[in-house]
Design goal:
There is one protein chain. The protein contains 7 helices and 7 strands. It is α+β, with helices and mostly antiparallel strands. It folds into 2 domains: about 80 residues, OB fold (Dihydrolipoamide Acetyltransferase, E2P) (Beta Barrel); about 120 residues. The chain has a 5-stranded mixed β-barrel with strand order 1-2-3-5-4. A two-stranded antiparallel ribbon has the order 6-7. Helix 1 runs antiparallel to helix 7. The longest helix is centred in the middle third of the chain and has 18 residues. It binds zinc ion (ZN). Zinc ion binds next to strand 7.
């Protein structure tokens, strides 16, 4: 029997009475079978809710899925009816499920769930920090050391998603430009080490727009479509028109 700790990312009915659960641990995503989960009397239901922080005893099998034997719920994040923030958590969940390496994400994701009733700045900053980590690890981060086309380091004007990095005034054929502060923010975030975490948070403004931007960047360079991201955008549209 093995003990694992992590966040439940997804639970899905499996066969007649069981479920499969995806658990984000410190090193990977485990897929675990939960016998009898669909029965309302199942004692294992409480420790297998989406976005709960759990400790599980599992029985690993040579063939087929590991089995959940016993579990404890360490923390449960209820999102306090904040549909927008909950939907963003689903986007992050879908991103996790689309990438292969998962080391170092558990604590970052936990800190986001803990910040769910915090200020926008705190909540969105933590998500941007996680996203930049994912983009770097996946090798799809923006090029920010100069103009991505001609490599000059001055007169940088805009971050281009389609080009994959900064563009200078010569190479930027669009009319669109970014504010200098925005370029400094992007440069800093992607060059920051863990010890610069607080410095970045206190120095720059982070909003939902940043989160949406980097999720779209992920979609574009991983060539995937995140339905959960469409849902977030829909909520934003509805909220702004209300
Ligand atoms: Zn250039």
């Amino acid at each position: 029997m093995t003990e694992v700790e992590g966040i439940v990312l997804k639970v899905q009915d499996y066969k007649e009475n069981d479920a499969l659960a995806w658990l984000l641990t410190e090193t990977e995503i485990l897929t675990v079978r939960i016998r009898g989960y669909q029965k309302t009397t199942s004692k294992l239901r409480n420790c297998a809710q989406c976005f709960s922080h759990v400790r599980w005893q599992i029985h690993s099998k040579v063939q087929g899925f590991s089995l959940l034997i016993h579990g404890t719920c360490i923390d449960f994040f209820a999102f306090q009816n904040n549909l927008l923030r909950q939907s963003i958590a689903f986007v992050l969940r879908d991103i996790f499920l689309k990438i292969d390496g998962h080391s170092s994400y558990l604590n970052l994701f936990l800190s986001i769930l803990h910040a769910v009733s915090d200020t926008d700045q705190e909540f969105y900053f933590r998500i941007v920090w996680l996203l930049k980590q994912i983009l770097i690890n996946e090798g799809i981060q923006p090029y920010t050391d100069g103009c991505i086309l001609c490599h000059r380091t001055d007169r940088l004007q805009v971050l281009s998603k389609t080009q994959g990095g900064f563009l200078c005034s010569n190479c930027n054929t669009d009319k669109k430009t970014d504010k200098k502060e925005e370029l400094i923010k992007i440069y800093s975030i992607f060059h920051a080490e863990l010890e610069n975490f607080e410095l970045c948070r206190d120095r720059f403004v982070f909003s939902l727009q940043d989160v949406l931007y980097w999720c779209e960047w992920f979609e574009y360079y991983q060539q995937v479509h995140l339905k959960s991201l469409d849902f977030v955008k829909q909520i934003v549209k509805l909220e702004s028109s209300a």
